[in-house]
Design brief:
alpha+beta
Length: 215
């Protein structure tokens, strides 16, 4: 995860100087930004000595780019198949900094390289287990809903379901989240099981055809 920084264009030719001293010499004058980045990163758990870098098309040799920062490419991810805006014209690399630069130092340097679109720490994300009551299974589970719990009813194959009973043992949800969006043709918001739990997006104006909240 990166803190906001001012982006500067770097026109130096670094490809000929990839020594430890050469890489670290570029840090001169950036100490305040590096310290701020270090403080920002303290709130995240991350893989040490690794950064994720999204590059623009102007970079043709990813290994050469990595070498300019005393690092090496662990993995190159082709984003051309994604439909997200701009992603089709960019590439994502996972870099090993090899101890030449700290994560904060690399992020500050690379964020100032005009060939770089985004640089982030390689954050570790963990699921959170929430204690649920032992009687989490609803007492009115409709046996015809085989997609939730398939016991072979209606001639189906037992166990071919979404594992709802196992999920309920982890969490049955709460009014504060998580919010579940069901992509379907519609829902009866007046249903007794749903009417009190339907979430309303206050950021949208119903029926105006405009993405008011920008997502």
């Amino acid at each position: 995860m990166s803190a906001p920084t001012d982006k500067l264009t770097l026109n130096q030719d670094w490809s000929s100087d990839t020594s430890t001293n050469g890489v670290r010499s570029r840090l001169a004058g950036l100490e305040p930004d590096i310290k701020a980045q270090e403080e920002f990163l303290k709130q995240y758990e991350m893989v040490p000595d690794q950064v994720l870098v999204r590059l623009k098309n102007r970079v043709s040799d990813f290994s050469d780019f990595a070498a300019e920062y005393g690092s090496s490419v662990i993995k190159n991810i082709d984003l051309s198949g994604l439909k997200a805006s701009k992603a089709s014209s960019e590439h994502l690399m996972l870099l090993d900094l090899k101890g030449e630069l700290s994560v904060a130092e690399a992020m500050v340097l690379m964020s100032r390289d005009d060939r770089v679109s985004v640089v982030e720490s390689n954050d570790i994300v963990r699921t959170q287990v929430i204690d649920a009551p032992q009687t989490a299974e609803p007492n009115d589970l409709d046996s015809s809903l085989w997609g939730l719990n398939n016991t072979g009813q209606d001639g189906g194959t037992a166990g071919i379901d979404i594992g709802a009973k196992a999920a309920w043992e982890t969490s049955v949800g709460s009014r504060t989240g998580p919010i579940v969006a069901v992509v379907d043709t519609g829902v009866d918001i007046r249903h007794q099981d749903l009417s009190a739990n339907i979430w309303v997006n206050e950021g949208e104006v119903p029926g105006d055809g405009i993405d008011n909240d920008g997502n």
